[in-house]
Specification:
This protein is an all-alpha fold and about 210 residues long. The protein is built from 10 helices and no strands. The termini are far apart.
């Protein structure tokens, strides 16, 4: 077992230790997923005892919420950086999908955010997360308005609605993986029709067009 690291004292040290824990949590999530994730495993991964871990995060869900906030910031920054000055609606939707679902944490945590994660965190943590969310939504809308030829308030409506759509289609990717299995052709077509990508892109494009024409 890894010896426990020296307890952080200053604010800078505590901030550094908190990020170390989150880095370990991100790596652990990649190894065991949401269901297999535990505070005990995280403490071991981070090289600390559970008591020290609880100084930074009171519950497993507070760790997930902090990871979600970081993944949201990471995804929105990547998406904004890849936006050209002009883009057709479908290409915009495809870029949004690819960058959002390309992040290993954003969609898995977003899909569980309001149903599970936010129900077991402190009010202070929840408020900080919501404010971060509002800030990122504003950034995404501001970056998307001219690209989509929308007014600022229309772009804000689009980004908020597409965020809800991401949550909806993410459930399709939580089904059991059948990769490597022999699946009848009719069932293959059925599964493909419920794949998150075509559902998201098609409906996201309709949403943008509807908001623009309103």
């Amino acid at each position: 077992m890894t010896p426990e690291k020296k307890r952080a004292r200053s604010l800078e040290e505590k901030s550094f230790r908190r990020q170390q824990i989150l880095d370990a949590a991100s790596a652990l999530f990649g190894e065991v997923g949401y269901e297999g994730f535990s505070v005990a495993l995280l403490a071991s991964k981070a090289g600390i005892v559970k008591g020290t871990l609880y100084l930074y995060f009171k519950t497993r869900e507070e760790v997930f919420l902090a990871l979600y906030d970081q993944s949201l910031n990471r995804w929105s920054e990547k998406f904004i950086q890849q936006l050209p000055e002009s883009l057709e609606d479908r290409a915009f939707c495809e870029l949004l999908y690819e960058t959002a679902f390309g992040d290993p944490l954003y969609v898995p945590l977003q899909a569980r955010l309001e149903k599970v994660i936010e129900h077991n965190v402190s009010l202070d943590c929840l408020l900080l997360s919501k404010r971060n969310f509002l800030q990122e939504v504003d950034r995404l809308a501001a970056a998307s308005a001219d690209v989509l030829r929308l007014r600022n308030e229309q772009a804000l409506e689009v980004i908020k609605t597409l965020g809800v759509l991401i949550v909806g289609v993410a459930g399709a990717d939580l089904a059991p993986s059948l990769k490597g299995e022999e699946i009848p052709e009719d069932v293959q077509h059925l599964l493909a029709s419920f794949s998150s990508r075509p559902i998201f892109v098609k409906n996201a494009e309709r949403i943008i067009q509807g908001v623009r024409s309103d």
